[in-house]
Amino acid sequence: MTRSPVDAPLTWNVAGLLAEDPGASREFDVADVTIQLDDGPELARPISGHVRLRRTNRGIIADARLQTGLRTECSRCLRPMEVPVDLVIEEEFLPALDLSTGKPLPADAEPDVARLTDHHEVDLEPLVRDELVLAEPIAPLHSPDCAGLCIDCGLPLDEGTHDHPTDDIDPRFEALRGFSAASDEERGS
Ligand SMILES: [Zn+2]
Ligand SMILES: [Zn+2]
């Protein structure tokens, strides 16, 4: 079967599979695939996994199990971290062209359905891209008990010591604090 072009690593030509009976299938390994995610999360490592393409009565079902990781930061301590992502994609692609005449099939009949490309290819990249954006966690933690940042010095609480003298501040410093707050107000007005 036709190999995917280098610049479209999540695309497979299924012209041959479309000529076979329903139930026929092809399997592909996905290894070291990197795609660009505009305005989205950044991949922490390449995508790898397995794709199965199966002929149905109407088109091709793609069944993909892919693994990768996203680069993000801990929502409490802001340390960079990677979250693993497992993608499970199952989608039926219908032909864009009538296989015997080569004429475009009406797409407006089923606008929400995935279509093969004009070159009889399954292109999983848009689906993978969407799934990766959805997979970005809202408030990831680098460890379940991340202590977060110190409100006094701004450094991670699980690093160094944070016994800052907040409760028994020298009265002279207390006076200075009042002074600096007042001058901030003046500047603000
Ligand atoms: Zn953290
Ligand atoms: Zn501190």
Molecular structure report:
The structure is a single chain. The chain is of the alpha+beta class and 189 residues long. It has 3 helices and 7 strands. The chain has helices at 15-18, 125-135, 171-188, and strands at 11-13, 25-33, 42-55, 60-73, 80-94, 114-115, 121-123. The strands form 2 sheets. Strands 2-3-4-5-6 form a 5-stranded mixed sheet. A hairpin with a 4-residue loop joins β3 and β4. It is elongated, with a radius of gyration of 27 Å. The structure holds zinc ion (2 copies). The site of one zinc ion has 6 residues, from loops.
Short structural description:
It is built from 3 helices and 7 strands, in the order E-H-E-E-E-E-E-E-H-H. By secondary structure, it is α+β, with helices and mostly antiparallel strands.
List the helices and strands and how they pair.
Elements: E1 11-13, H1 15-18, E2 25-33, E3 42-55, E4 60-73, E5 80-94, E6 114-115, E7 121-123, H2 125-135, H3 171-188
Parallel strand pairs: 5-6
Antiparallel strand pairs: 1-7, 2-3, 3-4, 4-5
The structure holds zinc ion (2 copies).
One zinc ion is lined by residues 74, 76-77, 79, 141-142, 146.
